[in-house]
């Protein structure tokens, strides 16, 4: 499935939503990626739980480094308007010295279905299992 990052569409399908999330992340545009979050959402992308303007600032600064993310959908559980999704991720983050940092792990995300039926991120919790060369 190919998602056009210039025309991201939220979806009610958890697997497709993962593809939308990847496309938004890999644009390197913090505003595009942050648009997938509810205003009150929490992201642990920095290693600390952040919300609001601080979350947006940190996401924008991080994505400006042009990291590349790959993720494999593992499973999802739905309870009413709440979705728990598990993905296995692999990320490469460029560093100023030219040697990228590679991280992989499991991300547990909680999404909430909006009035339009589409999912928005409520909690984004990537947990790195290891860094590798």
UniProtKB/TrEMBL annotation:
Residues 20-121 form the DUF4440 domain. This is Nuclear transport factor 2 family protein. It comes from Streptomyces achromogenes. The lineage of its organism: Bacteria, Bacillati, Actinomycetota, Actinomycetes, Kitasatosporales.
């Amino acid at each position: 499935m190919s998602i056009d990052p210039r025309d991201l569409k939220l979806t009610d399908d958890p697997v497709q939503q993962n593809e939308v999330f990847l496309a938004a992340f890999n644009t390197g545009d913090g505003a595009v990626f942050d648009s997938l979050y509810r205003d009150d959402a929490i992201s642990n992308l920095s290693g600390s739980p952040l919300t609001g303007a601080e979350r947006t600032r940190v996401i924008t600064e991080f994505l400006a480094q042009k990291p590349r993310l790959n993720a494999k959908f593992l499973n999802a559980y739905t309870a009413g308007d709440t979705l728990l999704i598990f993905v296995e991720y692999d990320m490469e983050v460029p560093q100023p010295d030219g040697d990228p940092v590679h991280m992989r792990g499991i991300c547990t995300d909680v999404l909430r279905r909006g009035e339009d039926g589409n999912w928005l991120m409520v909690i984004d919790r990537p947990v790195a299992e290891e860094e590798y060369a």
